[in-house]
Amino acid sequence: MNIEEIKLQLDRSSDQHLYIQLYSKIKKLILDGILKPHTKLPPIRKLAKKLNVNNITVVNAYNLLQKENLVYKKVGSGTFVNVINYNTDTEIDYKQYLHTLDESNIEYLNMFGNVIDFSNTTPTNDLFPVEDFKYVINLVLDRDKGNAFKYQESQGYYPLRETIKNYLSNYMINCDISNIQIISGAQQGIDILSKALIDYGDIVFTESPTYTGAIAAFKSRAAKIIEIPIKKDGIDLIYLENKLKSFRPKFIYVMPNFQNPTGYTYSETKKLKLLELANKYDTLLVEDDYLNELSFNNKYPQTLKSLDKNNRVIYIKSFSKIFMPGLRLGFMIIPMSIQKEILVAKHISDISTSGLMQRALDLYIKMGLFKKHINEINRIYKKRFEILVKSLSDYMPKQISYFIPEGGLNFWLSLPQGYLSDELHDLCIKRNILITPGSIFYANKIKSNAFRISIASVHESVIESGIRQLSEIINELLNSSNINKYYFNPITHL
Ligand SMILES: Cc1ncc(COP(=O)(O)O)c(C=O)c1O
């Protein structure tokens, strides 16, 4: 049968992309034997016109079919149905490949096989959209050939910056393409910002507790760090203003949404007041937005940047937690006044972020795959989140206080005053449970009764048993005699 005799209908109200729908329909026709080997598929333009879709929709569908060897292309003649080979040779090859895996890697994996890792904030591998990304990389390589491997401009691949600008309008962030700087991960953003702005002895304000990678970057520039306590509704503004009266920081580094490590989100009033203070005391705010997209109540909290009327906010966005950390991709929105310094620091750091990865991300977002991925991880994380919340309520001893965030990956828990979370951490390791003790999140590594657990690296199936075991260990610690040995700053703990 000829495909033109078949009625192909695409569902425009469906969430699924039109090219995927088209690919699936033709695939089914081939696998069902309705389209016989060597049947010619309609020319791209003709089919696009018939279905009332863009040519690229048909191109993408045909490319997917070709990728699966369901069709073949003859230069100048068109696309034809392939002879389907049902043997499993490819699977055998794959198994052989597995045998070539470095034995030490396998040992390493086994060693951690039984560990329940609440400490890691890296997504589990199954959350990485490997197939989709592979497909997009191949499209980029077919399209751009060697250009994909040249040095990219230090500021970043222009089409990606344009795509990001459009993407940001969904979040009410307006900026020029020229304000966007591509970076090899948010950590690099923090680092080049430090190189560009901080001189020996300069002052930087941070929330307390805060992200350890930021503390390390500021310390590497010999900055003096002043820590401002964070509360459940955001940074302590009274404490902050008092410090601003005495010190002029180069910037204030904050995570207003789903803060790391606490999970706290600033109220809108606090966000606005913080912007007001930055203006009043003439300083900059560095907003580290590492997972705004992970919201469990379908409401995306506002970014500071979207409220920033006076260009006070340097916005840093990571794609690590919401996409794939190994890509090493992120971006910053920077005011014109510091653009030159940032560009120089970026160039010195790594000349440019991988051009191939930038091109692939650009196409990935343009094809709507990023949005699809965010929906998917939100669904998975929400499930993990719900199981964790229930398990905490079922098992955690009542002396433990904890905060339930509205999104993100992190939960912040506190032992009663006098107990040390480093000690809990050591006990947990012996029982194959990993947590992150609070002490590492302070610039001066104070003793802390708080600790962080994350849902990034734990599958649904192990969360309940992990929290049950953690609760047992905590009970043992509470029943031991180690109380009242330590003093804690009551402002910085729950
Ligand atoms: C708050 C925060 N900012 C930045 C980073 C670094 O992210 P990237 O992998 O994009 O360098 C992390 C990583 O854990 C983080 O937690």
Automatic annotation (TrEMBL):
<dbReference type="Pfam" id="PF00155">
    <property type="entry name" value="Aminotran_1_2"/>
</dbReference>
<dbReference type="InterPro" id="IPR036388">
    <property type="entry name" value="WH-like_DNA-bd_sf"/>
</dbReference>
<dbReference type="GO" id="GO:0003700">
    <property type="term" value="F:DNA-binding transcription factor activity"/>
</dbReference>
<feature type="domain" description="HTH gntR-type">
    <location>
        <begin position="16"/>
        <end position="84"/>
    </location>
</feature>
<dbReference type="InterPro" id="IPR015424">
    <property type="entry name" value="PyrdxlP-dep_Trfase"/>
</dbReference>
<comment type="subunit">
    <text>Homodimer.</text>
</comment>
<keyword id="KW-0804">Transcription</keyword>
<dbReference type="Pfam" id="PF00392">
    <property type="entry name" value="GntR"/>
</dbReference>
<comment type="similarity">
    <text>In the C-terminal section; belongs to the class-I pyridoxal-phosphate-dependent aminotransferase family.</text>
</comment>
<keyword id="KW-0805">Transcription regulation</keyword>
<dbReference type="GO" id="GO:0003677">
    <property type="term" value="F:DNA binding"/>
</dbReference>
<keyword id="KW-0238">DNA-binding</keyword>
<protein>
    <submittedName>
        <fullName>Transcriptional regulator, GntR family</fullName>
    </submittedName>
</protein>
<dbReference type="GO" id="GO:0030170">
    <property type="term" value="F:pyridoxal phosphate binding"/>
</dbReference>
<dbReference type="InterPro" id="IPR004839">
    <property type="entry name" value="Aminotransferase_I/II_large"/>
</dbReference>
<comment type="similarity">
    <text>Belongs to the class-I pyridoxal-phosphate-dependent aminotransferase family.</text>
</comment>
<keyword id="KW-0808">Transferase</keyword>
<dbReference type="GO" id="GO:0008483">
    <property type="term" value="F:transaminase activity"/>
</dbReference>
<dbReference type="InterPro" id="IPR015421">
    <property type="entry name" value="PyrdxlP-dep_Trfase_major"/>
</dbReference>
<dbReference type="InterPro" id="IPR051446">
    <property type="entry name" value="HTH_trans_reg/aminotransferase"/>
</dbReference>
<dbReference type="InterPro" id="IPR000524">
    <property type="entry name" value="Tscrpt_reg_HTH_GntR"/>
</dbReference>
<keyword id="KW-0032">Aminotransferase</keyword>
<keyword id="KW-0663">Pyridoxal phosphate</keyword>
<dbReference type="InterPro" id="IPR015422">
    <property type="entry name" value="PyrdxlP-dep_Trfase_small"/>
</dbReference>
<dbReference type="InterPro" id="IPR036390">
    <property type="entry name" value="WH_DNA-bd_sf"/>
</dbReference>
